[in-house]
Design a protein that fits this description.
about 325 residues, Rossmann fold, 2 domains, six-stranded parallel beta sheet, two-stranded antiparallel sheet, 10 strands, elongated
Length: about 325
Amino acid sequence: MLHVIVSRGQSNNPKKRALEDQLIEQLDAMAGVRVVITPNLYDLPMQSEGMDALRELEGDLVVLSWSYPRAAHWTLDRCGIRGAEGAVQLIEAVDEDDEDDWEADLAEDTPKERVADQRTPAERNIFCIHLAVSEDAAAFVDEVQRIVKESSAHLLQWLQGEATSEQLDRYLDDRNEPAPLTIAATGGRRWYPVIDFSRCTNCMECIDFCLFGVYGVDGAETILVEQPDNCRKGCPACSRVCPENAILFPQHKSPAIAGSPGATGGLKIDLSELFYGGGGDAVQVAAQERDEQLRLAGREAVGMTIGIPRRQDPDQERPKDDLDSLIDELDELDV
């Protein structure tokens, strides 16, 4: 049986609600599928009955949500619901020229070790589908049917290898398909960063920059979002200083920050172009956003004096500081 999560959006837009309801009804009638209805996954606390229920789901997952697929995948990942990114065919159109440029940029980049590279490979797939791709419920139903067929072999392999005889009987007998599982909302809307560990290099620039105690490290000294609710609502500043575009805010109005697939191109992308269409410098904007939040919290602004990455575009010169001047003077000495 394939679990299909329908993550309702934060909006009460009647068209969006109607699409969600149509999907729930049609998917519930599909053989081999169990529907799981949740509030916005991003709003569910990591330690909650809802997340506990999701962590108990076995086998491949399909996630239908209003978040970009990358954001949905890593939102689940931070809560311990992990899997390989399943191949989805129902996706947003990507300009072929942009895709060629993106692949060329990646080919030129020096390979870097990502946090995800250090993990044990996942034994299941998670297929994340963006509900904004189509207004037609049938398009999503067709894609889920395709995934059901594709994942059947993977599911049977798991059942035959690890499952008990009781689990095998339950999964293979369609007559025992349970009713949809509904997870209740817990609290209101939230705002916090989500880390894409397929891009994160554990450089720690985010923890240096954030002055609100949002980030921390685990026992292996790997970055994590330790206190998500310390994050200042509406502030995406840390995402602007991340050199790998690995920090997402799924509810941000900018597609690049929210996790759009078109915003994960080569690492030579000018961040000011990426986030502001050419206006302003991303690091300066991030510092201004941080100062604004510090003032709102009754604290003193720090400007560019704390947590600003010395890493800059290698083609871009920075003003020399006292250490640079001293080194230049030593180089000029005839010794």
